[in-house]
Every structure is written in structure tokens, then in C-alpha cells.
Design brief:
Blueprint lengths: L3 E7 L7 H12 L3 E7 L7 H5 L3 E4 L13 E2 L1 H6 L4 E5 L2 E5 L2 H11 L7 E5 L3 H13 L4 E6 L4 H17 L11 E6 H6 L4 E6 L16 H4 L2 E6 L8 H8 L3 E3 L2 H16 L5 H18 L2
Parallel strand pairs: 1-2, 1-3, 4-6, 7-8, 7-10, 8-9, 10-11, 11-12
Antiparallel strand pairs: 3-5, 5-6
Helix pairs in contact: 1-10, 1-11, 4-5, 4-10, 5-6, 10-11
Length: 294
């Protein structure tokens, strides 16, 4: 097999752990590759370069913005409205999403799932993928989607789309399930007294280099049984530090990054990996992060 040219694109992109993870996955599969990091401030200016690759990963802020430039979109990515994996075939860009699956697998490793009442922070590409994945997996989902005051119209639109998607799924056309999602502002969350089984942070708040910030206060965290932060750098975000101090179950974002990356290999080459290899890679990636960002 010829050397595969794969990349990760985003802006800014200096914090990425994707090269370490992807090189390990390619080594496990025995597929020769060159993996590059491409900072893309403006997508249209880089499309010709991207078409020369064999595939690429998409991260902030291009997961939604990428869609209009694709030549084909997977049904799941189309429904979710978010793309994080692109396969290139004869110069054509084919879009997929693996974020929701990555989140689900990361939670599963810690004996958590999408049942119960979930407080989901954000309404960007990652939040979209996770919200739709929750609705896909659990007909009786309960999601409270929190966003900034100025983003409430966007949050309300996402809530409606997730609700409609759930009702459109096979077996739910007539019953519709009892799943519910509604959006609200962070202020409403802070002023309320609702309790949640799981808090998921799908925003970039607290991500390197802007560490030391938490998307919600200690008061909100105190009303959550478990906390998952999709931010993986730093390994222990301010949100997770506060959650630990409150004796909450905490789950970092590195496992999600590893599992969504592995799912991309299934799309690119039909590759699967053993549980043992995945567990080892998750731990090694956490240690590598500590080495690079002590």
C-alpha cells in the first residue's frame, strides 16, 4: 500500500494530540502513513490542498463549517449537522461524524451512559454530535442544553432538530419515545436548582492555553452526579478539579479523542482495534499529554 497522507485541520491547532494517537493507530493496523497538522484559518483557501490528502480529521472551529464544502455527506453526519472525519476519494471529500460514538465509548469505559438527566454545555459541532448521539441511543433521553444568552436562538433550533430527529428514527414514528430536550441560558442553570445525572462539557472553556476556567460554577457542579469534560488538554481541567473536590465521578476527554480517532480508521480503511490496545493507547496518550504539557 502506498503511504497514506492524513492530517488534522483546525484553528488554532497547536494543542492537538491527534498526531500521537493517529501514529499509534496506524502502527497497530500496519498501514504506512504521513500525518500532518494543518492550521486552517479559512477553509476555502485550503480546499485544493485537502483534496490531495487521503483523509483528514476536523476539529474546532470547522466541524459545522466544513459541511458546505463536502462532495458527499454520510446520513448520520447529515442528521447531526457536524463532521469530524473526512475521507478523500479521487479528490472528492466525503464527510462523517465519530464524535458522538467517541463520547459514548469513553463513558462506557467508566460505566456511564446516556441514561438519566443530562446537562449538556454548548451548541457547537461537538455538542451537536453528542446531543444527537444521546437521542439515537436512548429513546427516553432527557437533555438540558445550556448555552450563552446570545446563543439561545441557536440552542433552541438545535433542541428542535434533536427532537425531530428522535421522532424520525425507525420504531419511533408512532410512539415517538418520551425523549425531551430543551435549551436554556447559563444564567438560568446557575439560578436554578435542578439536579442532573451527568454533566457534559462540549465547549472549549478551560482548554489549553486558557486553563483555569470552568464553564459552570461549583453550585451547578454540586447538583450533578458525574461530570464528563470533552476538553482533553489539560488532562485535568478546572471543571474536573472542582468536580473532584466535590467528590463527583469525573471523566476526562482523552478517551473520547482516542475512540473517535479509532472510529475514523474504520471509515478510512475498515480497521478495528482490540479493547486491550485501545485501553493501552488511552493511558499512553494521557501520559504523553503530561510529558508535552507538564
Amino acid at each position: 500500500m502506498k503511504i497514506q497522507k492524513i492530517a488534522v485541520i483546525g484553528h488554532p491547532i497547536g494543542h492537538t494530540m491527534s498526531p500521537f494517537i493517529q501514529k499509534r493507530l496506524f502502527a497497530l493496523s500496519g498501514i504506512p502513513m504521513e500525518y500532518s497538522v494543518i492550521d486552517v484559518p479559512e477553509l476555502p483557501k485550503q480546499l485544493e490542498l485537502l483534496r490531495q490528502l487521503d483523509g483528514f480529521n476536523v476539529t474546532v472551529p470547522h466541524k459545522i463549517e466544513m459541511i458546505p464544502y463536502l462532495d458527499w455527506l454520510d446520513e448520520k453526519a447529515k442528521a447531526f449537522g457536524s463532521v469530524n472525519t473526512v475521507k478523500v476519494e479521487k479528490g472528492k471529500l466525503l464527510g462523517y461524524t465519530t464524535d458522538g460514538e467517541g463520547c459514548s465509548m469513553a463513558l462506557e469505559q467508566c460505566r456511564e451512559d446516556f441514561s438519566g438527566k443530562i446537562l449538556l454545555l454548548g451548541n457547537g459541532g461537538a455538542a451537536r454530535a453528542i446531543a444527537f448521539e444521546i437521542a439515537l441511543q436512548n429513546p427516553d433521553f432527557q437533555i438540558v442544553l445550556a448555552c450563552r444568552e446570545q446563543s439561545l436562538p441557536k440552542g433552541e433550533k438545535l433542541s428542535s432538530q434533536v427532537q425531530a430527529y428522535s421522532r424520525s428514527l425507525p420504531g419511533r414514528e408512532s410512539s415517538g419515545g418520551s425523549g425531551q430536550v430543551h435549551s436554556c441560558s447559563y444564567r438560568q442553570i446557575e439560578e436554578g436548582n435542578e439536579e442532573y445525572d451527568l454533566l457534559i462539557n462540549a465547549t472549549s472553556v478551560g482548554m489549553f492555553p486558557n486553563i483555569g476556567q470552568s464553564p459552570v460554577s461549583e453550585a451547578v457542579i454540586s447538583r450533578c452526579k458525574a461530570v464528563f469534560d470533552a476538553v482533553y488538554n489539560p488532562g485535568e481541567t478546572e471543571l474536573l478539579k472542582i468536580s473532584k473536590r466535590l467528590s463527583k465521578k469525573v471523566i476526562g476527554g482523552m478517551d473520547m479523542l482516542v475512540y473517535q480517532a479509532a472510529a475514523a480508521h474504520r471509515i478510512w480503511y475498515g480497521t478495528s482495534f482490540s479493547k486491550a490496545d485501545m485501553a493501552a493507547l488511552c493511558e499512553d496518550a494521557r501520559q504523553e499529554l503530561k510529558r508535552v504539557f507538564p
